[in-house]
Amino acid sequence: MAEVKEIKKVAKKAKMADPATASIDPATREMLERAQKLGVETIFDRAVTMKACNIGSQGTCCKNCSMGPCRLPLPKDYDEATDERKGLCGATANTIAARNFIRMVAGGAAAHSDHGRSVAEVFMSAARKETEAYKIKDEGKLRQMAPHLGVATTLEVDGEVQDRDIDEIALEVAEKSLNEWGKAEGTVEYLKRAPAPRYEIWKKQGVLPRNIDREIVEIMHRTHMGVDQDYKNLMKQGVRASLADGWGGSMLATDMQDVLFGTPFPLVSEANLGVMKEDMVNIVIHGHEPVLSEVIVEVAQTKEMIDYAKEKGAKGIQLSGICCTANEILQRHGVPLCGTFLQQELAIVTGACDAMVVDIQCIMQNLANVAKCFHTKLITTHPIARMEQDNVVHIEFDEHHALEDAQRIVKLAIDNFTERGADVMIPKHKSPMVGGFGVESVQYHLGGTFRGDYYTLNDNIINGRIRGIGGVVGCNNARTKHNEAHIQVVKELIKNDVIVLTTGCNAIACAMEGLLTPESAKVFCGPGLAEVCETVGIPPVLHLGSCVDNSRILLAATEVVKAGGLGNDISALPAAGSAPEWMSEKAISIGQYFVASGVYTVFGTVFPAEGAPVFQRFLFEEMEKMYGGMWDFEKDPILHARKMIAHIDKKRKELGIDKARERVMMDMSDRMALEV
């Protein structure tokens, strides 16, 4: 423990976070107290000692050339008519804020879409049968996605239509999918999965993405010093790149993961640090790309590895996850959720984490410093995501040797179990949950095997039992009280009969709070939503997976439009989006593709255009005229939720369903007379 003592000397000189005000989660508070007693610095402490840059958070600091950074803070006596703020090159606050904003879109779209490309490459290897670790698991989903890429699933033989060979379909889907990242002609194929009026809006606005990579590259070119200097034109490209993410890279990633690993279906699990077990080998999987973690789950369940763990004195192997890789292995295997983004260091602070296996995105470099204080093996696995610290083990993923890589990782964790010290402290806090909902499973829950449809959902929205739909997603942010905004927004929504679809760290926060169980509806929901949840047997907050799985929300909204009765486009729906504690560039890309898809979208914490009120007004008002969706910002969680509810009520009024409909008891003859 020499390193711990050394850190303790440093930590005593610095300010430390107050656990009581740092998080609403008791497990997090306990581990933060333990970390501080041991002198182990965490992100919560760094958030106290390092103040955020006010100008940067306003979006008006430009460092796109070496003449800067040029900082244009918003003056207290700001007057739009006399605003003469300029950078050295003359770039206005609006230009600077728009450039910064769409660079965040580019960063987020690149992260999601590069994830999708990696999955597509593994998919290609599986289609070519080059790897034993991966194969086509869900043939039905493959046949479902193929036509959207222009791949035929049937062929005519001697005048008869027959199903095409599944291996041929898989290979052509792989080729067409990979082509979406860099094709020379046409537009992204999946755009046509949107309602037809939505597609026409994109076409009219000139924002149909040509391919995924090109739109990201063009943002970097446009925002280079001395190129695009019109905030409206800059945002046009921002919209195009975000659509390449939401209706391109992310949606392809989700579909291909479903085909390779199985389409999720609701299952029971648990969430929070208390899922770790003192008498077992604890392997925590963290990141966003599930291709290796899928194989680790498989290997950890083999008799060979379980017996090996018992030889080393453990009772077995306990897998758990953090962030979106966690959501992926939860929704397909029931692997419990260890925690959110802000809890990653604390999982090691328990002293029980034998190995933390990380891939890409949201991985804190300080994990290596925390791991030095304990016995934990920190293992990086992705070629583009390594750490400079010498105590980090790198086992690089290769789909052709994934099984061997996974076996090596699990064995390393088991061997490390014997190095665990006696000072172990696992919080007792954990909550039951139901996760793994998707477009297909919602259809099943609403209508059964033979008549699954979104009509039931629409009918309950029309009759007022369900007020509307809220998509609440996104990260944690150390500048806010951990999980507080997530939970307050969601509770306020479901209290007012708004059903919530959730992904990412918001989904994990809701799971920790016990909101992902059908039983929670009676406690937290308004009477209408509670009745629906009890009748159907679903939670009021539906876990739809990881952040790339926000594409499931887009497709669910499209299914609601198709079911009828609520308008002919996503923008007509009584629905709203939210990211209460966002921090990642990915959140800006997600928010922008939801806005461009016609969804009113509210962000919390900060908004990166506050320093340029004209540009911000364009996002908050003008975009609605163009796309039917718009941005908004509200830091207070309750007001944040109420803005969403007000928008939902506005849409209900526009649809003419704002008045409660009389409930009528019908006999069989009445039902048979209905038009279906």
What tags apply to this protein structure?
18 strands; Rossmann fold; six-stranded parallel sheet; single chain; alpha/beta; Substrate Binding Domain Of Dnak, Chain:A, Domain 2
Give a short summary of the structure.
The chain has 676 residues and is an alpha/beta fold.
Description:
By secondary structure, the chain is α/β, with parallel strands linked by helices. It has three domains: 93-154 and 164-261, Substrate Binding Domain Of Dnak, Chain:A, Domain 2, CATH 1.20.1270.30; 267-417, Rossmann fold (3-Layer(aba) Sandwich); 443-655, Rossmann fold. The protein has 28 helices and 18 strands. It has a six-stranded parallel beta sheet with strand order 8-7-6-9-10-11. The protein has a six-stranded parallel beta sheet with strand order 15-14-13-16-17-18, with helices on both faces. Strands 1-2 form a two-stranded antiparallel ribbon. Strand 17, helix 26 (613-627) and strand 18 form a beta-alpha-beta unit. Residues 5-11 and 661-666 have low confidence and may be disordered.
